[in-house]
Each structure stands twice: as structure tokens, then as C-alpha cells.
Amino acid sequence: MKFTTFFAASALSMIAGAVSADSYGNAYHAPASADAGYNMLADATGMTLYIFDNDSHEASKCYGGCAADWPPFYAKSDAAPYGHFTVHKRTDDTYQWVWQGKPLYYWRGDKKPGDKGGDGMGGYWHVVYR
């Protein structure tokens, strides 16, 4: 499987490759849709994004050890919602990108763009297909 094109709004395309850290030292990327023939959602670098079935609408239930294995897809506190993307404040005072009401995460086992080793993990973690 090979990742090909990234799709993003024109405002996002100016910052899609930008990676930096927030005041907590958390890395964040601007979200972008990656279409690898499967319509998987990925960040701007092509890393696969996941949702967690135990989360409730725009509220993460993944903290501590869970967040170590499933790092949140962090956002800047002033990130502007667009399309199906919104931002929510986590209980640890960080901000996380949300896709259609579901907080987004990475899987620590994914090492390169296109990896989706966390898909189906424990029956609760899923790649985001749009």
C-alpha cells in the first residue's frame, strides 16, 4: 500500500507540513485527509489516525497509559475548526483534533506513513475512513 495525495483546504495547505510543539511539549500537526485508495484519515505527514469506541462525543477517555500507547492528535489551543474537524479541550488542559465528534489518536506501533497496525486493536480502536 502506498500513500499518495493529501487533500486539504487551501488555508490548511499553507501549514500542512508544519510540525511544532505546544506549551506542553506535545507535537502537533495540521490534519489532512490522505487517500490511499481506502480513504483513510491521516495527519499532514501521512501518519494514520484512529478513533476509540469508548470515547463519548468530543470527549476523550484515553489518558495515562492509554495515551502513552495511543497518543492524542494534539492541536493548538487556538486551532480553527474546519470541515468535519473540530478541537476539544482535554481534562489535562491540552487540545485534541476531533473528526465528526470523535477524538483522534495515533498508534505508537505505527512507524511510517500508511502503517495501520492499530486497526481493530482490542476491538475498540479503528482507522478513520471517510
Characterization of the model:
By secondary structure, the chain is mainly beta. It has one domain. The chain is 7% helix and 27% strand. Strands 7, 8, 9 and 10 form a 4-stranded antiparallel β-sheet that branches. Strands 1-4-5 form a 3-stranded antiparallel β-sheet, with no helix packed on it.
CA-to-CA gap between the ends?
18 Å
Count of distinct strands: 11
- Largest sheet composition: 4 strands, antiparallel
Helical content (DSSP H or I, runs of 4+): under 10%
Count the helices. How many? 2
Structural class: mainly beta
Which H/E pattern describes the elements?
EHEEEEEHEEEEE
Mean pLDDT: 77
Radius of gyration: 13 Å
Which descriptor suits the 3D outline? globular
Segments where pLDDT lies below 50 for 5+ residues? Answer: 1-30, 33-37
Question: How much of the sequence is in beta strands?
Answer: 25-35%
Please indicate the count of domains. 1
Layout of strands and helices, then pairs:
Layout: E1 6-7, H1 10-13, E2 19-21, E3 27-29, E4 31-34, E5 41-43, E6 50-52, H2 65-69, E7 74-75, E8 85-89, E9 95-99, E10 102-103, E11 125-127
Antiparallel strand pairs: 1-4, 2-3, 4-5, 6-11, 7-9, 8-9, 9-10
List keywords for this structure.
3-stranded antiparallel β-sheet; 130 residues; mainly beta; disordered N terminus
Task: Give a short overview.
This protein has 130 residues and is mainly β. 7% of the residues lie in helices and 27% in strands.
